[in-house]
Structures are given as C-alpha cells and as structure tokens.
UniProtKB/TrEMBL annotation:
It comes from the Bacteria. GO terms for biological process: L-histidine metabolic process; positive regulation of gene expression. Homohexamer. The gene is hutP. Keywords: Activator, Histidine metabolism, RNA-binding, Transcription, Transcription regulation. Belongs to the HutP family. Antiterminator that binds to cis-acting regulatory sequences on the mRNA in the presence of histidine, thereby suppressing transcription termination and activating the hut operon for histidine utilization. GO terms for molecular function: mRNA binding. The keyword RNA-binding applies. Coiled coil: none annotated. The lineage of its organism: Bacteria, Bacillati, Bacillota, Bacilli, Bacillales. This is Hut operon positive regulatory protein.
C-alpha cells in the first residue's frame, strides 16, 4: 500500500480551501470536489450545509448510505479541529464563519484501496461579536 506524494487527498483539500486557485490540481487528478461557505452557531447547520453541497455537486451519492456516512465522519473530524475537540458552538457562545472544500478521489496507487473523501475547513471561530474571533482550521479524511 503506497500513498502517492502527488495524491495526498488531505493536503490537496487543505490547499484548496486556503487558495481556491488550487482547483485545477484537483481536476487534473480527475477527482470530484466542491466548495462553499457556512457560518453558524449550530454544528448541525454546518454539517447540513456541507452534506447538501456534496450531494448537489455529486461528490457523493446521497442515496448510498456508506457515502453519506463517510462524509459525515470526515465532517465531524474536521469540526473537531476547528473547535479544538469540543464540537460545541452556540451552547457555549461560540460561532464560526468557514470556507469548506470536499474532495473525493483515489489517493493510493493500488485501485483496491478504493476512494476516500476529505473535508477541509478554514475560517474563524469566537464569541458571537464581530472582531472577537480567531482563525481556525480542520481536516477530516475517511474511506468510502
């Protein structure tokens, strides 16, 4: 099993969310992707926005449970990074403003390793008062 250097799905997703000009590197690999923005004091709204974008842009097939399940776990892992392990927002008076990218592809040289999905988040988190936030970043990767 070998992870190809030029196919590091997490690195590609992170670079894409930080610099939307990286889109062409995802497309060169023939991988599926989408991106968007979400802001909320409720984590369920963040999950819903990312899942909706992934389904709408056909990154996942919403009628196949394992694809939705894989995406959900990648989102939750990325949220753990943004929220420093405590996926709580509004209940502890925190809000986020995030850009997200979802990338789906085959990062391993062996096709038997199948497809993987990466969710990258970048933005701000803090008190629900403009100017009282700081940057945050998160990454989640899961096999499909």
């Amino acid at each position: 099993m070998s992870l190809a250097e030029q196919k590091r799905i997490g690195k590609i997703a992170m670079l894409y969310v930080l610099d939307e000009g990286r889109q062409e590197s995802v497309e060169e690999l023939g991988w599926i992707h989408c991106s968007g923005k979400v802001g909320s004091m409720e984590s369920n709204k963040i999950v819903a926005a990312i899942e909706t974008a992934a389904k709408k842009n056909e990154v996942i097939n919403g009628s196949v449970y394992r694809e939705t399940h894989a995406l959900y776990h990648a989102i939750m892992e990325a949220l753990h990074g943004v929220t420093r392990g405590q996926v709580q927002l509004g209940t502890v008076l925190r809000t986020v403003g995030l850009r997200f990218t979802v990338v789906r592809g085959q990062p391993y040289e062996q096709p038997e390793e199948g497809e993987w999905i990466a969710v990258a988040l970048y933005g701000t988190i803090g008190a629900p008062v403009k100017g009282l936030e700081h940057e945050a970043i998160g990454l989640g990767i899961n096999h499909i």
